[in-house]
Design a protein that fits this description.
single chain, 181 residues, alpha+beta, four-stranded antiparallel sheet, 1 helix, binds calcium ion, transmembrane helix, transmembrane, membrane
Length: 181
Amino acid sequence: MERLTHRLLLGWALYGALTLATVLLLLWYRGVFLPCRSSRTAQAELGGRPCTLTLENGAFAVQDGKTELWRSEAALRVQDFLTLDIDRDGETELVLLVWRRGNYGPSKPFWVRRNDTNWSQHLFIYNWQNNAPAPQWMSSALRPQVKAWAAQPDGQLQITTPQGEETQWRWGQWGLVRTDA
Ligand SMILES: [Ca+2]
Protein backbone atom coordinates (compact mmCIF):
# COMPACT_ATOMS: atom_id res chain seq x y z
CA MET A 1 0.00 0.00 0.00
CA GLU A 2 2.79 2.35 0.98
CA ARG A 3 4.63 1.61 -2.24
CA LEU A 4 1.50 2.41 -4.21
CA THR A 5 1.12 5.76 -2.44
CA HIS A 6 4.77 6.57 -3.23
CA ARG A 7 4.20 5.75 -6.89
CA LEU A 8 1.07 7.85 -6.97
CA LEU A 9 2.88 10.80 -5.39
CA LEU A 10 5.78 10.44 -7.81
CA GLY A 11 3.31 10.32 -10.69
CA TRP A 12 1.63 13.52 -9.57
CA ALA A 13 4.98 15.24 -9.01
CA LEU A 14 6.07 14.31 -12.54
CA TYR A 15 2.76 15.48 -13.95
CA GLY A 16 3.12 18.80 -12.08
CA ALA A 17 6.68 19.32 -13.29
CA LEU A 18 5.70 18.59 -16.90
CA THR A 19 2.72 20.95 -16.72
CA LEU A 20 4.90 23.71 -15.25
CA ALA A 21 7.57 23.18 -17.95
CA THR A 22 4.87 23.37 -20.67
CA VAL A 23 3.41 26.57 -19.23
CA LEU A 24 6.88 28.17 -18.94
CA LEU A 25 7.69 27.16 -22.52
CA LEU A 26 4.42 28.67 -23.77
CA LEU A 27 5.08 31.90 -21.86
CA TRP A 28 8.62 32.05 -23.28
CA TYR A 29 7.24 31.43 -26.78
CA ARG A 30 4.87 34.36 -26.35
CA GLY A 31 7.74 36.60 -25.24
CA VAL A 32 6.54 37.10 -21.67
CA PHE A 33 10.10 37.00 -20.30
CA LEU A 34 11.46 39.65 -22.69
CA PRO A 35 12.40 43.09 -21.27
CA CYS A 36 9.36 44.69 -22.97
CA ARG A 37 7.21 45.66 -20.05
CA SER A 38 7.78 49.41 -19.88
CA SER A 39 5.06 51.80 -20.98
CA ARG A 40 5.57 55.40 -22.05
CA THR A 41 4.12 58.09 -24.29
CA ALA A 42 5.99 60.83 -26.18
CA GLN A 43 5.17 63.64 -28.58
CA ALA A 44 7.26 63.90 -31.75
CA GLU A 45 7.05 65.43 -35.19
CA LEU A 46 7.05 62.77 -37.92
CA GLY A 47 6.82 63.79 -41.57
CA GLY A 48 6.22 67.36 -40.40
CA ARG A 49 3.15 66.43 -38.31
CA PRO A 50 2.95 66.29 -34.53
CA CYS A 51 2.23 62.71 -33.42
CA THR A 52 1.72 60.84 -30.19
CA LEU A 53 3.92 57.77 -29.78
CA THR A 54 2.79 55.13 -27.31
CA LEU A 55 4.56 52.03 -26.04
CA GLU A 56 2.54 49.64 -23.94
CA ASN A 57 3.43 46.06 -23.03
CA GLY A 58 5.57 45.48 -26.13
CA ALA A 59 3.15 47.12 -28.60
CA PHE A 60 3.99 50.46 -30.22
CA ALA A 61 1.54 52.85 -31.89
CA VAL A 62 1.64 56.25 -33.62
CA GLN A 63 -1.40 58.52 -33.38
CA ASP A 64 -2.36 61.81 -34.95
CA GLY A 65 -4.86 63.18 -32.47
CA LYS A 66 -7.39 60.38 -32.00
CA THR A 67 -6.52 58.68 -35.30
CA GLU A 68 -4.14 55.74 -35.12
CA LEU A 69 -1.73 56.01 -38.05
CA TRP A 70 0.32 52.90 -37.42
CA ARG A 71 0.77 50.01 -35.01
CA SER A 72 3.66 47.55 -34.75
CA GLU A 73 3.02 43.97 -35.90
CA ALA A 74 1.57 41.69 -33.24
CA ALA A 75 4.44 39.21 -33.78
CA LEU A 76 6.99 41.85 -32.69
CA ARG A 77 7.69 42.84 -29.11
CA VAL A 78 8.85 46.46 -28.93
CA GLN A 79 11.26 47.21 -26.10
CA ASP A 80 11.69 50.95 -26.74
CA PHE A 81 11.51 53.70 -29.37
CA LEU A 82 13.44 56.86 -30.29
CA THR A 83 12.91 59.68 -32.77
CA LEU A 84 15.99 61.40 -34.17
CA ASP A 85 17.56 62.49 -37.43
CA ILE A 86 19.87 59.49 -37.47
CA ASP A 87 21.07 59.94 -41.09
CA ARG A 88 21.41 63.73 -40.77
CA ASP A 89 19.22 64.58 -43.79
CA GLY A 90 16.99 67.02 -41.89
CA GLU A 91 14.07 64.56 -41.49
CA THR A 92 13.28 62.72 -38.28
CA GLU A 93 13.44 58.91 -38.30
CA LEU A 94 11.59 56.53 -36.02
CA VAL A 95 13.89 53.94 -34.44
CA LEU A 96 12.47 50.86 -32.71
CA LEU A 97 14.28 48.40 -30.48
CA VAL A 98 12.36 45.18 -31.04
CA TRP A 99 12.40 41.45 -30.32
CA ARG A 100 11.17 38.91 -32.79
CA ARG A 101 11.30 35.18 -33.16
CA GLY A 102 13.64 34.10 -35.94
CA ASN A 103 16.61 36.19 -37.04
CA TYR A 104 15.22 37.05 -40.46
CA GLY A 105 11.46 37.42 -40.01
CA PRO A 106 9.38 36.55 -43.07
CA SER A 107 12.03 37.83 -45.54
CA LYS A 108 14.82 35.34 -44.88
CA PRO A 109 17.53 35.05 -47.55
CA PHE A 110 17.19 32.04 -49.86
CA TRP A 111 20.41 30.44 -48.57
CA VAL A 112 19.02 30.20 -45.05
CA ARG A 113 17.04 26.96 -44.96
CA ARG A 114 15.37 27.29 -41.60
CA ASN A 115 14.58 30.46 -39.71
CA ASP A 116 15.46 29.90 -36.05
CA THR A 117 12.66 30.26 -33.51
CA ASN A 118 14.58 31.93 -30.69
CA TRP A 119 13.79 35.50 -29.72
CA SER A 120 16.43 37.95 -30.93
CA GLN A 121 16.83 41.70 -30.51
CA HIS A 122 16.79 44.00 -33.55
CA LEU A 123 16.97 47.68 -34.41
CA PHE A 124 14.53 48.94 -37.04
CA ILE A 125 14.85 52.40 -38.61
CA TYR A 126 11.88 53.94 -40.43
CA ASN A 127 11.44 57.07 -42.55
CA TRP A 128 8.07 58.69 -42.11
CA GLN A 129 6.32 59.25 -45.46
CA ASN A 130 2.61 60.02 -46.14
CA ASN A 131 1.62 59.28 -42.53
CA ALA A 132 3.20 55.84 -42.59
CA PRO A 133 6.59 54.33 -41.79
CA ALA A 134 8.83 53.27 -44.67
CA PRO A 135 11.56 50.83 -43.55
CA GLN A 136 15.03 52.34 -44.01
CA TRP A 137 17.11 49.71 -42.23
CA MET A 138 16.27 46.52 -40.37
CA SER A 139 19.20 45.05 -38.48
CA SER A 140 19.82 41.34 -38.14
CA ALA A 141 20.11 39.96 -34.59
CA LEU A 142 22.03 42.49 -32.49
CA ARG A 143 25.39 41.40 -31.10
CA PRO A 144 26.07 42.76 -28.58
CA GLN A 145 22.54 43.37 -27.39
CA VAL A 146 21.17 46.71 -26.22
CA LYS A 147 20.31 47.17 -22.57
CA ALA A 148 19.83 50.93 -22.75
CA TRP A 149 20.11 53.54 -25.48
CA ALA A 150 19.86 57.29 -25.98
CA ALA A 151 19.77 59.69 -28.92
CA GLN A 152 22.64 62.18 -28.95
CA PRO A 153 22.13 65.79 -30.18
CA ASP A 154 24.44 65.10 -33.16
CA GLY A 155 22.24 62.17 -34.37
CA GLN A 156 24.47 59.46 -32.91
CA LEU A 157 23.13 56.61 -30.83
CA GLN A 158 24.60 55.85 -27.45
CA ILE A 159 24.15 52.17 -26.65
CA THR A 160 24.82 50.44 -23.34
CA THR A 161 25.34 46.69 -23.61
CA PRO A 162 24.05 44.21 -20.98
CA GLN A 163 27.71 43.97 -19.86
CA GLY A 164 27.72 47.71 -19.12
CA GLU A 165 29.91 48.77 -22.06
CA GLU A 166 29.12 52.26 -23.44
CA THR A 167 29.26 52.42 -27.24
CA GLN A 168 28.57 55.13 -29.88
CA TRP A 169 26.99 54.51 -33.28
CA ARG A 170 26.22 56.70 -36.29
CA TRP A 171 24.50 56.13 -39.62
CA GLY A 172 27.01 55.11 -42.28
CA GLN A 173 26.47 54.44 -45.99
CA TRP A 174 24.24 51.48 -45.22
CA GLY A 175 23.55 50.77 -41.58
CA LEU A 176 24.97 51.79 -38.25
CA VAL A 177 28.71 52.13 -37.77
CA ARG A 178 30.45 52.10 -34.44
CA THR A 179 32.43 55.31 -33.87
CA ASP A 180 34.03 54.85 -30.46
CA ALA A 181 36.08 51.70 -31.16
CA1 LIG B 1 16.85 61.74 -41.28
